[in-house]
User: Fold this.
Amino acid sequence: MTDNFQFNFINKTALVTGGVSGIGAATALAFKKAGAKVIVTGLTSQEIETAASNPDFSGIDIHQLDVTDSMAISKLASQIGTLDYLIHCAGMILRDAEHEPDNFDKVLNVNVSGGMRVTHALKPLLIKSKGAIVFIGSIMSIFGGPKQPAYSASKGAIKNLAMSLGAAYAADGIRVNAIAPGFVLTNLSKGARDNQTRNQEILSRTPMARWADTAEIADPILFLCSDAARYITGTLLIVDGGYSSQG
Assistant:
C-alpha cells in the first residue's frame, strides 16, 4: 500500500489462503496495515515457521491448511468467529508436467476446487457480515498457456467461478470478484525472470515495461473488498501493466 492513499478495515477480519508468501503475503500485510484482523494459511510447516518468524507477521493469525482437505477446512472454519473478507491466494503450478493427467487434476483440485471448498465452508460467516470474496485469476484467465495447460485452465475457471458465485451470492449480500495479475515479482516467477530471452519477451510486450511488485496486486484486492467497490461483483479485474492490451 502506498502512502498516497489508505484503506480502512478497522474492526474487520480477512482470511487469506496462501497468505504466507507472494501475492498472498502482500495482501495479508496490506490488510494488517489497514487495521484489519488478519488470518493466513500456508500449506507446509516450513512456510508456517518462516512466516511466524517474520516480524512483519506479528499479530497475524497463522494456520497450516491444505485446501484439498475438507475436514481441515471445516476445522479452521469452526475456529473463526467472524469473517468479512475471504481472499483465495492458495495455488500451484507444475508447468510442463501438467500435460500428465494426474498432475492436471492435482492443479485444478488446488486452484479451483480448493477455493470452492473454502468458500463453501466460510459462506455462513460471510452472509452474516455481508462480506466479499476475491479469487486470484491470472492473465491466463484470458489466454492459453501451452506450457501450463492445467494452470491456464484453472485460471479460466476462476474467472467463470467468480462470475457464477457473484450472481449466486448477491442475494446473500456477498460480493465475489477475481483479479487477474500479469507478471509479478514472486518466487514462482523467478525462472522466467532469470531467463533473459523470456524476460525480454515479457517486458517488450508490457507497455509499462516492468514486472509488478506484489503490493501492486494487493492494493486492487483491497479495493475490491472495500466500500469503494460496493457495486462491483462477478467481475475479473485485470492488473497487468497493459500486457493484455496488446493484440
Q: What stands out?
A: Helices lie at 22-33, 45-52, 70-79, 101-129, 149-169, 190-194, 196-205, 215-225. The first helix runs from residue 22 to 33.
